[in-house]
Design brief:
By secondary structure, the protein is α/β, with parallel strands linked by helices. It folds into two domains: 233 residues, 4-Layer Sandwich (Metallo-beta-lactamase, Chain A); 62 residues, no CATH class. The chain is built from nine helices and twelve strands. The protein has a seven-stranded mixed beta sheet with strand order 1-2-3-4-5-6-7, with no helix packed on it. The chain has a five-stranded mixed beta sheet with strand order 8-9-10-11-12, with no helix packed on it. Helix 5 runs antiparallel to helix 7 and helix 7 packs across helix 9. The chain is globular and about 60 Å long. The termini are far apart.
């Protein structure tokens, strides 16, 4: 087993020599983002669809989400080493979805800690078999157990890490987009990296709790941030205004489905009628909206 792991590391090192660095943009001092595309993960994009990036301190670098496939992780690492000589010390995963964690293995080396929500390891373990079995067919990539790397530093509530003159505050959120959402706040630039707690342009996707998600957004809305980085979509510089489209969509789902359940109506009618006023406002609406209705109906039905 040890030999196989060393061989895997050598393969990654060889790939890194020839790979082109991922394109990244410095949105504010020391905060770099690669912006994903609003696409379904498939064999063409190989799952590389999310916003990922890194934050540079005086002592070390924190990676925030590693990419949708191992090769993208290598390209992100190349972008970091091209940008700065500062070593990488942390890889922070915002949640369990493939487009945010499949590049982890590119950063597996001595001195690098992996950080995530305290429920992330369990979520990874539950999904690992499915992820590995379906990676070739769905994404056109080979995924191995060593590519799914759980956190070595779980966050139960909040955790502060020092990058050297730059403190990041990590927050483990209650169930919202998923049950393992983690946000990262950079006090130095008043930047909040939200992962998929926030979607822009791309329809929000519910894999947790709509009531929990709306509650978290309500708490976050009370704060003032200069920059907010979503998991999908452009950086926000007018936080409270740009938050409203997602709040409106989720609120419509909750309210319309609640009303239907109280009227004794069924899921089949809900998937044909609920919140279609939002259709022209979002990309990938047709691909995710009915799934969202199904998830929300199941959540709310038990409460009536």
């Amino acid at each position: 087993m040890k030999f196989l792991w060393i061989l895997a590391l050598l393969t990654i090192s060889q790939q890194a020599v020839s790979v082109e660095p991922l394109d990244v943009k410095e949105i504010t001092q020391g905060v770099y983002v690669h912006f994903g595309k609003h696409e379904l993960p498939d064999t063409h994009n190989q799952g590389a669809i999310a916003n990922i990036g890194f934050i540079v301190g005086k002592k070390c670098v924190a990676v925030i989400d590693s990419g949708g496939n191992p090769a993208q992780g290598i390209a992100l690492k190349k972008a970091i080493t091209t940008t700065t000589d500062t070593p990488i010390c942390y890889v922070i995963n915002t949640h369990v979805h493939p487009d945010h964690i499949y590049g982890n293995s590119a950063f597996k080396e001595t001195g690098v800690e992996f950080i995530g929500h305290h429920k992330l390891a369990r979520a990874m373990a539950m999904r690992e078999g499915y992820y590995i079995d379906n990676a070739a067919e769905q994404l056109g990539i080979e995924l191995k157990p060593g590519d799914i790397i759980p956190p070595t530093m779980p966050v139960i509530d909040t955790l502060k890490i020092d990058l050297g003159g730059r403190e990041l505050e990590l927050t483990a959120h209650p169930t919202a987009h998923t049950d393992n959402d983690l946000s990262i706040y950079d006090k130095q630039t008043n930047t909040l990296w939200l992962g998929d707690l926030l979607f822009r342009q791309h329809l929000p996707v519910i894999d947790g709790s709509i009531k929990g998600w709306l509650a978290e957004l309500g708490r976050l809305e009370k704060q003032n941030y200069k920059y907010v980085i979503p998991g999908h979509g452009a950086v926000i510089t007018d936080w409270k205004h740009s938050l409203q489209p997602q709040k409106r969509y989720l609120t419509l789902l909750r309210d319309e489905i609640t009303a239907m359940i109280k009227q004794g109506k069924f899921l089949e009618e809900a998937v044909e009628t609920v919140a279609y006023s939002e259709k022209k406002r979002w990309k990938l609406f047709d691909q995710f909206h009915r799934k969202n209705i199904t998830a929300v109906f199941a959540e709310l039905e038990w409460e009536e």
